[in-house]
Fold these 3 entries.
Entry 1:
Amino acid sequence: MVSSKSKPIIMLVIDTLMDQPLQEAIKGNRAPALKFLIGKGRYFPNVVSPFPTMSVNVDTTILTGTYCNEHCLPGLVWFDSKENRLVNYGSHIRELWKLGISQSLEDILFNMNGSHISKDVKTIHEEIEEKGKKSASINALIYRGYSPHFYKLPKLITWFTKIKKDRPTSAPAAFTYGSLKNISGSFRFQRLWQRFGFNSSFSIQELTHLIKTDQLPAFTIVYFPELDQRVHKHGRMDIQGIEKVDLHLQKLLNVYDTWEEAIHQNIWLTMGDNGQAWIDSNRKKALIDLRKLFGEYDIMKLKKGNQPQNQIVLAVNERMSYIYTLDKQKLSIEELVQTVQNEERIDVIAWRNGSYIVVQAGKAEGELRFRKGGPLIDSYNQSWNLEGDLNLLDLTIRDNKLHYGDYPDALERLYSSLYSHQGDFIVVSAKPGYEFIGEGSPTHVGGASHGGLHKQDSLIPLVVTGTNSQPSYLRMKEIKKWVLSLLDED
């Protein structure tokens, strides 16, 4: 038996794993592997995800232990005022095509990890290597490390884009990124219809290779993408998706002589990355079309980019959006706010005003102003100064302590998004049941979607098996520091 002090840590990130459907799957005996890991460990149903609740932001928070005001990756879609262009890491092929497939692929394959994540923060892979240990990243979207790797790019990409095949990306020593880079050398599960290796079968194959060849490093993060796609289509309570994920986990545990042996030899951290909120089945009700809302203004077209006559840029992150004014002397932040205030399906409107952040809601009276530092201490030992209507963010004060309701860690998460990048913009988040659309946005009518500040988007489960330790607070932001402390026990 391996001693607890030398156990490798395996983090299984299951995109859109949520507590309620997981509990239903276990009750119906449809998730024996997850039931085993929970039964042999500890279960935390409500860990807070960062905002916006989009995978690239969430995964960057997991790896850096910071919110986006520090790691500087604002979301899946955002406007880069320095380069005067919209950045999109893969919302939908329609949008990528309009923005220019060459630039979009360069952002996804190189810029996202290489230059867009702040150099002022270190990833868990970088810190582990500095300690003289090794780590692995399997199909994770965010992976920055110190080892140079080269993608195996399809000829179509090198022929029809400006991307060069000899351009390196920096990742941990063991690195898998779909069919573009793998550890095992296998060609299975990498076809076009298998999303070029970005699937759970491929993730399991690569992790199994590390285990069977005795190459499992001190820390391994493994990403399982497929549940997210099913929940988008079938809704929050899709049990079949969890059942399919569990089959993959059963295969993984079966690599060992017994499942008990698997948890004796390793520490297993099994978690979601973000939740999803239900979306109305009535298309007209479900979709908040920002192009119509801002119809009297000149909105930047994706294909043309920023033109002199443009007034507004829309960066749609499903149930959350950044809305930018390109010249606040001609179109003020206040005008943007007045426009979205007319939409009752928007439950949070936020913007910076001096040292304060101001919050309103669509078709609702009242205003909340807050800033860091002040007499009120929240559940995460953060101090705040608040003025105005606490109900806008479902806040309550008891014994001079600030408590969160429908919007977990709302103040810090809103603050982080509004200080995540340069520009003149507001942040909007939709009520459950609704999502935003712009030009070419994906839609999830009758299914589910994420990105928003609401607890349906924001709370995920964490299963800890193989150690009695837990994070200092139940937020994704604390995961990195906690994992490093487990490794320091060596």
Note: Confidence is low (pLDDT under 50) at residues 189-195.
Entry 2:
Amino acid sequence: MKNLVYVIPMAGLGTRFLRAGFTLPKYMLQVRGTTVFEHSLRSLPLELASKLVFVALKEHKEEHGLEAFLDGALRRLGCGARRELVLLDGPTSGQAATVLQARDCVPAGAELAIYNIDTHFKSAALAGVLAAPARKRDGVIGAFTLREVDPKWSFAALRPDGTVAATAEKEQISGNALTGLYHFTRAEDFFRVAAAALASCATTRGEHYVAPLYNALIAEGRSFSLDLAEVIVPLGTPEDLLKAEPRDF
């Protein structure tokens, strides 16, 4: 029985795109003939999902036909998993806070995978890792090798045995930059530490990010695997969309 729930936070305002003159939400924009939404979700082994939960702004449903957009995109992706939509009145204090709004959509005992909606990656190993309890351990963090100094990303440092020793946001603690895929073998692990972070106002640069939450679980003795992608294509800014080439996908 499939037990993995994907939660896709997509409740940002897309300020950089608005300033550049775009009127559609970022994830609805076309890149090389395909929407940013579809490029992003093609990164994931959707065949493992029992459900996909999208957390979006209410105004995107009212002004841009969000539900019809989701159904059409998922049909083109060949995804037959159930789809749920959580609508927010406005942006939250960060990705972790946004995903917390989907808590009631994730059944007890489920696995949770969080993924952003503005990055495309390719990982040949990811589906196998997520399907193998011994390999995924208490969760899997998506990453890629970053060979230059660029602290805009999230990062994970590894122990000698290959498990994750620490994570950081906007602090380059290693060459393992993160793709934005955050998996928790027990969904409740995420919801518990995320709720605690919000309650204590523990932020990074004023936002509640997902990556740093792993540190609390590591301190409890949890063990996390890193999955290294072979290809990474950022789609988060107008400049990223212009730079994307057909071969990237």
Note: The chain has a mean pLDDT of 96.
Entry 3:
Amino acid sequence: MINFTVGPVQSSDEVCRQGAQQVPYFRTAEFSEVMKDNASLMMEFANAPKDGKCVFMTCSSTGSMEAVVMNCFDENDKVLVIVGGTFGDRFAKICEIHRIPYTALTLNHGQKLTTEMLEKYDSCGYTGLLVNIDETSTGVLYDSEMLGNFCKKNHMLYVCDCVSAFLADKFDMQSCGADIMITGSQKALACPPGISVIILSPKAIERVENSKVRTMYLNLADALKNAERGQTPFTPAVGILLQINTRLHEIKNAGGVCSEVERVKALADYFRNSIKDLPLEIISESLPNGVTPLHPIKNNAKEIFRILKDEYHIWVCPNGGDMADSVFRVGHLGNLTLADYDQLISAFKELHQKGIL
């Protein structure tokens, strides 16, 4: 199978070899050094603020989204949530569950967020903003600098879910003023799912340390304290953390963040240019590098996903909800090559000749 989904994605041979090793005991100085190295490289790649800190959570990125909301906000806050798809809606649901007052700035599927849309929320007493920088469900990239300027002007805690944007699109915590960045092991890090990463600015750390949150497993103050010694409060996904270390050094040795972002962009550009003559509509007004959302003009998206999987041994990414029959997505993350895309494009052309696409 060739995997063109947006997560889990294909891993490099070196990451796979690391994953085949026996998992070591982790309460050791040696593993602590690996964890500190992971944190250092993650903060370097995100250009984290001075005195920022990084924690590794053994959970999906949704767990880290919830941890951030629980530990950084309470009933005295007023949060603005950008809702342009499934993952923005997830932030809103987390706020609702934890009784955090919030307002949803709701966009249509594929719609670009503009300064004019934000203006009506200016000087309205909001204390935080939650956004999925790449709203992966609809394939929309939001302008992190624009949002950062808005948050700075309004003295808001700026929380960025960069699960699909990190290492795929240009994102710089210091440049855009982000206070928190969240990402996951199974996206551009191209490791198995199971680890989520949170990078916090000093402003966010202060909020965490003053929080009266009632949680054991998702207590970020506890995670930060343990991170000082290169450890976690509870047993982490040790094997994946070792794979992350391998992958971070791969990226570093290949030229760093800029090189990885350019690699992903080159794959996306090649694919998009190659399908221009096919009856596939790109539905996003602001495309990220990591994913291309496609509406098959003549046929059912869910059926195309099934045929590619069963007859061509290719995974693309199906959509759910009201887009299940109308949209599927093609990812550009992980260990993919132009030759892999040639196989996908060839399959598309064959399906078009058969009247299926």
Note: The chain has two domains: 22-253, 256-353.
